[in-house]
Amino acid sequence: MTCRVAPCLLAVLAAAAASAAQAQAPFPSRPITMVVPLPAGGTADLLCRLAADKAGGILGQQVVIENRAGGAGGRIGAETVMRSAADGHTILCAPQLNYSITHLVFTKSAFDTRSMEPVSVLASYPLTLLGRATLAADDLSSFIAYAKANPDKVRIGNSGAGSHTHIAASALFTSAGARVIHLPFGAGQAVVSLLGNRIEGSVQMPPAFVPQVQSGELRILAVLGSKQEPVFPQVPTAQKAGFAVILDMWRGIAVPKGTPKSVIAKLEDAIKKTVESPEFAQAGKEIGFTPAFLPAAEFGKLMATDDRKLAEVMKDLGLKKN
């Protein structure tokens, strides 16, 4: 009897030992999936891929990009990560993690920023207002005057209903007293439509249009953030031009709620080394972003502050539901 039970007991003990060893395996124990809630090929996707490649080398595991586009503000990608195992092997690389505002106003979603753990900020860059080079408006004041002279005719593209670019454009033109038509597009399509003369202007982030501005096809009319854009330092901010609009943009890394602090700390360290690397700095100069590491604790405060700030802006614009 004992001889028959012994092999079974040994097998159970071996399985238990294997499970315990796996549970205690140092992070990361396998490739990491970085979910990008945007289509492949866009500038945001490029930034995330740069970070994934560098961070993967630091962590000693491949970081694989998974594009999950769809939903206002990237809701589908965010929900994918939120529902993943909280072990650090699925992370979110996303623009302005203000989905809590987006889902409360525009969609029904289980996701908001409080359902995620912040890891770090990757980069920051101000939003900008672009115009066609063929328009008779070469700065913000003249473009606003043109929009006022043509109420409900000037078309302004954004990256999607409820996106940060949509809110920024609404804030700018509403505060200026100009009635424009806001048109949502997928990633990259707003610039294409601008080049194709299907819209008059668009609020976008610098990586989306640097080559077109350098070639003279498009014109930057104003920077909507708190600082001037380093790639185009000659372009003034909207505030300096006399319009009270300050909306900065950042991209960051987050993980599911409940992820162990030790795992978050290791990811945070890898992102810090990535952001501070010469390669990342050079990429920022080439495609138009500013490397901007912010640790988990400070990132969490920034997310909460920005959520409140955007809620106030959306309420003023009449976009926030009661």
Tell me what you see in this structure.
This protein has 2 domains: 32-126 and 249-316, Bordetella uptake gene, domain 1 (D-Maltodextrin-Binding Protein, domain 2, 3-Layer(aba) Sandwich); 131-223, Periplasmic binding protein-like II (D-Maltodextrin-Binding Protein, domain 2), CATH 3.40.190. It contains 11 helices and 11 strands. The chain has helices at 2-23, 43-59, 75-82, 99-105, 140-149, 164-176, 189-195, 210-214, 261-275, 278-287, 296-316; strands at 32-36, 63-67, 90-95, 116-126, 128-132, 155-158, 181-184, 201-204, 218-223, 248-256, 290-294. α6 links the parallel β6 and β7 (181-184). α2 crosses α9.
Q: What keyword list fits this structure?
A:
322 residues, alpha/beta, D-Maltodextrin-Binding Protein, domain 2, six-stranded mixed beta sheet, five-stranded mixed beta sheet, 11 strands
CATH homologous superfamily annotation of the largest domain: Bordetella uptake gene, domain 1
Task: Give me the secondary-structure category.
Answer: alpha/beta
Which radius of gyration do the C-alpha atoms yield? 23 Å
Task: Show unreliable segments.
Answer: 15-23
| Mean pLDDT score | 82
**Helix proportion:** 40-55%
CATH architecture of the largest domain: 3-Layer(aba) Sandwich
